[in-house]
Amino acid sequence: MITTAPKMMRLQRTIIAGKRAYHDLVTLPGSKPIVSSGPPGYSAVSGHRVTVFGCTGFLGRYLVSKLGKMGTQVIVPFRDEDEARLFKPMGDLGQIVRMGWDMRDDQTIAECLRHSDTVYNLVGRDYETKNYDFRAANALGSERIAKIAAECGVSQFIQVSHLNASKTSPSKFYQAKAEGEELVKAVFPSATIVRPGPMFGYEDKFLTNMAVWPIWWKLNHGQTTTRPVHVMDVAQGLANLMTNPQFSKTLTLPGPSTLTYEYLLELVSSVTLQPASRAPVVPKGVATVLAKIGQNVWWPSLSPDEVTRRYIDDADVPGDWDAVGVQPSEIETHAITYLRRYRSAENYVRPVVFPPRPAPSLVAE
Ligand SMILES: NC(=O)c1ccc[n+]([C@@H]2O[C@H](COP(=O)([O-])OP(=O)(O)OC[C@H]3O[C@@H](n4cnc5c(N)ncnc54)[C@H](OP(=O)(O)O)[C@@H]3O)[C@@H](O)[C@H]2O)c1
């Protein structure tokens, strides 16, 4: 009787008011109840409270926007207050909560996540700074957040890693990403690990960088293969995980096709209607030395590890898009959106022409 009475009341309310149904109440591990209400969209209440560490980055902004649209209360931890201002209109009043944090301060981490049922960790850096090396930014920080999340009773932890994360990789960044996965799993065993491929979008360091610095993408004669994925697809997949948890899984989210940098440079050139770069192919040793010298400037420049990564093919593993309920789109579908700004004024509205796709063996089925 004790258990059925509230259910009967809910059923009655559903029939009379037509407002709430059984599926509006979800119980997450740790018995956290999630109660959704309201109309769909921006003004809805999904019932979830989510913290997105690393929200101020490229992927984080799109994820917060998608979560806000679903009516989720999102805690957005920031280091620089200006970086967090853009989140304000992404959710209804009171739904976007901005909080200052420091990766080395347990108390601020706990404050940011203690009321959340789901925590996303998108924190990562693919170059070293004087305060944070690859390990500190990608592995130790993730472990710290996951440990505090476990202590605070968070139900779901989603760690964003990288498609090429591997402890045996020649790249220190990919090694740190793999170590981060292991450390997170050790302190939060049911964590979901998500491994996206290289992402493209407005603020990427991929397509737009190719338009500006083609010379650095010609390394290895452009023969390195990559599996680019649209940032919106990854953000949607991550947002879907909130309502469709994949506890204790590793999900890989590569792009639908495997392409060479050579093809992508051709694509950039034909979409922007700019002549192909005639810069020479820089040998690896020279590129590494130049990248080391470049580290003396105070803004992020091509790092020696990035030179190493330009010679590493993206992992050839199947994608788990079905698990996150997203159909990934091809790079050609969105290229013009992000590359039109590199066209000259007289070419601005000309139709888009794509170069022929490379040999079929390079294109995933
Ligand atoms: N971009 C890609 O192509 C790609 C591909 C696969 C995987 N990933 C992974 O996906 C995640 C998100 O990528 P992204 O492109 O959005 O990265 P991003 O634009 O570089 O953003 C990284 C985020 O991490 C935060 N962060 C970095 N170091 C920090 C530190 N020491 N303390 C506190 N916060 C720190 C940044 O905060 P601030 O804004 O305060 O600096 C920012 O919010 C990363 O883990 C990345 O490794 C990215």
UniProtKB/TrEMBL annotation:
Q: What is this protein called?
A: NAD-dependent epimerase/dehydratase domain-containing protein
* Gene Ontology molecular-function annotations: protein-containing complex binding
Q: Which domain of life is it from?
A: Eukaryota
Its source organism is Agrocybe pediades
Q: Where is the signal peptide?
A: none
Coiled-coil spans are none
Q: Which InterPro entries match?
A: ComplexI_NDUFA9_subunit (IPR051207), Epimerase_deHydtase (IPR001509), NAD(P)-bd_dom_sf (IPR036291)
Transmembrane segments in this chain: where? none
